[in-house]
Amino acid sequence: MSPPRRRPGGRTARTRAQVLDAVLAELGERGYDGLTMEAVAARAGVHRATVYRRWEDVGGLLADVLDAANDDAWQPPDTGSLRGDLAALNHEIQDALTAQPPIVAALIAASFRSEKADRAQRRLWEDRYIRCESIVRQAIGRGELPPHTDARRLLIAATAPLYHQLVLLRTPPDPGLPDHAARTAAIAASAGAFAEPPPVGDT
Amino acid sequence: MSPPRRRPGGRTARTRAQVLDAVLAELGERGYDGLTMEAVAARAGVHRATVYRRWEDVGGLLADVLDAANDDAWQPPDTGSLRGDLAALNHEIQDALTAQPPIVAALIAASFRSEKADRAQRRLWEDRYIRCESIVRQAIGRGELPPHTDARRLLIAATAPLYHQLVLLRTPPDPGLPDHAARTAAIAASAGAFAEPPPVGDT
């Protein structure tokens, strides 16, 4: 079930917006280890008891931040070419992962600590990869890709190097990587690497 | 500087081996949150004071486990083809990330918690990617790849989907992924996706 949407003017929705904004601000300033229910309540100007009753713990707060991102109006890029779409997507990912304060990076790190944040982070990724399948459908429609291309594998191949370098290897951002990873995936995809069944002559 | 190698018979080396084995056992059974200096000392049969003096804290223990893995005799696969080598490498990664008890996964998770473990994890990855450059050199030597292929980018493209799915997306292991990600990277590499400068006609 998706959480209630913010309704401007609704008291519950306004409280949620204040609390989630406070979570983002605290997370950006202090990271996961500095995030407390008390600091969030104080910053939001909301009673502590309300925060505990509705979100239970820090994991619940982080999960709700991620769920709030999940019902937004985000749409995948639509540049007119597969390679352009994947490059634009990768630039968005690189920008998000290197933004200051490091909210997205902190939420990913938190998903290793809190089961609730983990489940919410995975819901968010699942939602984004499903939305991005339109990139692959449109490329098939334009004749750029074989009809039975596996959208998920292609999207993961295109985006995984960004996450690998910035989240796991934690190397400084490589300004050329978003375009390079997009070009690599597009070259492999055009050669049928993600087609089902695999290209003739291949095992 | 690399840590001292284990010398069978040396008292210091024996203590280190006992303590690191105890860290692995505790980590496998209890995960990072259950890992304590006291439990490691008790399990290893070593004085607590010795463990504190030599490793300082849990992060120091984890960093030493990772450094111990770093000076081992691991060599990259050598199957006679680029695709075969990358597939064998990916199978090793998938096996390590899905092993029970989940030592490697726990060490990666710990790298989000402890700066010492983070630095040691990155040293280990750096070492492994450097060793794996021989896969690319040999493929160039066999004429499978253009001479100026960027080994690091190719290796990351080949291996990143495994880490992305198992460590970040945390999907169940896909038995076909090691071969598929290897084949995808090999197809792109053969088409010059990792060649420097990029293939003619490309921007």
TrEMBL record, chains A, B:
DNA-binding segment(s): 36-55
GO MF terms held by the record: DNA-binding transcription factor activity; transcription cis-regulatory region binding
Domain HTH tetR-type, residue spans: 13-73
InterPro entries per the UniProt record, alphabetical: Homeodomain-like_sf, HTH-type_TetR-like_transc_reg, HTH_TetR, Tet_transcr_reg_TetR-rel_C_sf, TetR_C
Keywords: DNA-binding, Transcription, Transcription regulation
Pfam families assigned to the protein according to its UniProt record, in alphabetical order: TetR_C_11 (PF16859), TetR_N (PF00440)
Record's keyword annotation contains Transcription: yes
Protein name, UniProt field: Transcriptional regulator, TetR family
Organism expressing this protein natively: Micromonospora eburnea
